[in-house]
Amino acid sequence: MSRFSQFGNDLYSGKRSFDIVGRRTLFYVVSLVLLGLSLFGLLGKGLNFGIEFRGGTELRVSQVQEMTDYESRAQEVVQAPVDGGTTAVTRIGDDTVRVQTGEMTSPEAEALRAELAEEFEVPVSAVTSSLVGPSWGESVTTRALIALGVFLLLVTVVLTLYFHTWKMAAAALVALLHDVVFTVGVYALLGIEVSPASVIGFLTILGYSIYDTIVVFDKVKENTDHAMDTRRSTYAEAANTAVNQTFVRSINTSVVALLPVAVILLVGVTIIGPGTLVDLAWALFIGIAVGTYSSVFVATPLLVHLRQGELDIRKHDAGVRKRRQRAESRSGRGEATAEAMATTPTVDGPSDPEPAAVGAAAPPAEEGTRATTAGRQLHPYAQRGPRNQPRRKRRG
Predict the structure, then answer these.
(1) Separation CA 62–CA 64 (nearest Å)
(2) Which of 25, 197, 326, 390 is the S-S candidate for 279 at Cβ 3.0 to 4.6 Å?
(3) What angle is formed at CA 165 by the lines to CA 159 and CA 168, rounded to 5 degrees?
(4) How far apart are alpha carbons 103 and 198 in whole angstroms?
(5) Is 308 exposed, middle or buried, given 0-12, 13-18 or 19+ CB atoms closer than 10 A?
(6) SS3 273
(7) Strand 127-132 relative to strand 376-378, pairing
């Protein structure tokens, strides 16, 4: 755990960095592949709508003592009165069998109750039936679509006003649609039943995804504004730094959110059986996972892609590159000068034909001239030095 914390500190300080923005083409391709699979599932297999959307009759047999081959036993009983209808048999908990089939009249439902009670050896009162019309599911779908439209409109307005650019709102909305399409596509590919609880889950993951995206965008805005003021990094570099600084935080938030959802999903599938909790957990688990990916690898790279064509951003990036080129040029000249000075022999001036006598005083330097030491000229005062000056007597 300490290593992961150190990894997060290194990403935040810049000691380590992933070039997420620079490799955005790779992540675009990954997203397109995921969306392609989702569309294949939606258009090819289609969604497995629950009885609330397609309508039909639901019967529940409780107090069942013998659950062996419950599915085939229920299918044999149901297929006779509902010829050609689609029947789904699932187990709920330890002693309940749920049967969903096509629409039936009241006499047919009562007859089927008696046959199921006889098959599973329970009293008729332990078998309940309910008729579900498709109009209820259509009403839920219509209201969900209205809520989705209002949500997207409000998100667009709020993000545009907060970040002072509509392009951040556009990038966030693309990430949202990416998450919804992928989640619904997984439902189609895996054949997971779509119920009203699933629709609620779809709307819930929108809030989570936009929350994570706004956190990343807030750091992007902070870093890019600082970069525009200091002119030390380009817009793309500042945005990439922001993504790295929020990378570990996004992972931690997702793990904390996924753990309880995974527990609910596991318990629901293995113990409780199909129901509202399982339908909701499937949507949340898939949506939170893909929402974390889109906030980091889709939203910010797309934002940089949209804003790099702006005149101010282009001028800023060009100025940063020119400044770096000048710094590199000065650094190169400085290194060349230092190397030349290191290889050039020291010249102290013309040598006397005869060596000076030991103890003889050095001739004073002429006014206006500069002596040389190790190839560098010194001022006469620096040559004489303050130590060679006579000390003044202190007055008593």
Answers:
(1) 5
(2) 197
(3) 60
(4) 23
(5) middle
(6) coil
(7) unpaired
State the pairing for strand pair 371-373/376-378: antiparallel
Half-sphere exposure of 252 (CA within 13 A, CB side): 10
At 15, phi and psi to the nearest 5? -65, -35
The CA distance from 382 to 79, in Å, is 111
Amino acid at 207: G
> Residues 53-72: what's their mean pLDDT?
82
**Residue whose token pair is 């007859």:** 111
Kindly report each contact of residues 305-308 with a partner whose C-beta sits within 8 Å and lies 24 or more positions away, as own/partner: 305/24, 306/167, 306/170, 306/171, 307/165, 307/167, 307/235, 308/235, 308/236
Confidence at residue 297, expressed as pLDDT on a 0 to 100 scale: 92
SS3 2: helix
Instruction: Please tell me the distance from the alpha carbon of residue 285 to that of residue 339, in angstroms, as a whole number.
Output: 62
pLDDT at residue number 33: 92
Residue type, 79: Q
Encode pLDDT of 316-369 as tens digits.
889 888 888 888 888 766 666 666 665 555 544 444 444 444 444 445 544 444
DSSP at 44: I
Q: Is the pLDDT of residue 381 over 60?
A: no
3-state SS, residue 376: strand
Question: In degrees, to the nearest 5, what angle opens at C-alpha 210 toward C-alphas 249 and 218?
Answer: 60
Instruction: Give mean pLDDT, residues 1-8.
Output: 61
Decide if 99 contacts 116 (C-beta within 8 A): yes
Supply 55's token pair. 């309508």
**How far is residue 334's CA from residue 337's CA, in Å, rounded to a whole number?**
5
**DSSP classification of residue 297:** I
Write out pLDDT tens, residues 70-121.
888 888 888 755 554 577 788 877 788 888 887 788 888 888 888 888 888 8
